[in-house]
Amino acid sequence: MSLAVLASGTGSILAAMVEADLPVALVVADRLCPAVRCAVSHDVEVLVVQRESFGADFDRVGYSTVLADRLTDHAVTMVAMAGFGTILGQPFHDRFAGRVLNTHPALLPAFPGWHAVRDALTAGVGVTGCTVHLATLEVDAGPILAQEEVPVWPDDDEASLHERIKVVERRLYVDTLRSILDGEILLESVFEGAKS
Ligand code: GRF
């Protein structure tokens, strides 16, 4: 497996993957962000495929094609999104169908979207969590590979709850990738099974 990790944030999940000796061959960021520094400090090759626009004129299909091409150039076979801030379009999912993973800070299908932690707090749930899943064109809707609950405490704010969820994500995502590497999770079966 030659794994690319896509990140836009602090990169703490990326760091957990590298420190767990997962075969991270490449880190890709869509902007300059702390995750880039994290890759450099861990001696992992990093590419910034700069996103030129965050507005309505963003060429999602064009960007997705460029990103897929860059990963193909680097002989990447599997992609793990870890806090990546760009929703990728059809060309990317066509190229890497069934080989793109994501982690989401809620128990999907509950609280999809960018504000999962805030939405869970607003809804007043006593338990939320995180989900590692196969990413498909439909955002936060691909087949679920692993989930773990995290309790919400009465004095939680978005930052404290998110950090407690991320502690679990760092372990759960690494363990899930390890199970894929070890052949205990067969992504092809999961992906094909979800289609039928
Ligand atoms: C994680 O909570 C992930 O689920 C979400 O973004 C966060 C990334 O955290 N999509 P970090 O940048 O790895 O610290």
Describe this structure in words.
With 196 residues, the chain is of the alpha/beta class. It folds into two domains: 1-96, 3-Layer(aba) Sandwich (Rossmann fold), CATH 3.40.50; 103-196, Formyl transferase, N-terminal domain (Rossmann fold, 3-Layer(aba) Sandwich). It is 39% helix and 20% strand. The chain has helices at 12-19, 34-41, 60-73, 90-95, 116-123, 158-181, 187-195; strands spanning 3-7, 24-29, 46-48, 78-81, 100-104, 127-134, 144-151. The protein is globular, with a radius of gyration of 16 Å. The model has no long low-confidence stretch (mean pLDDT 96). Bound molecules: 5-O-phosphono-beta-D-ribofuranosylamine (GRF). The site of 5-O-phosphono-beta-D-ribofuranosylamine has 14 residues, from helix 1, strand 5 and helix 6.
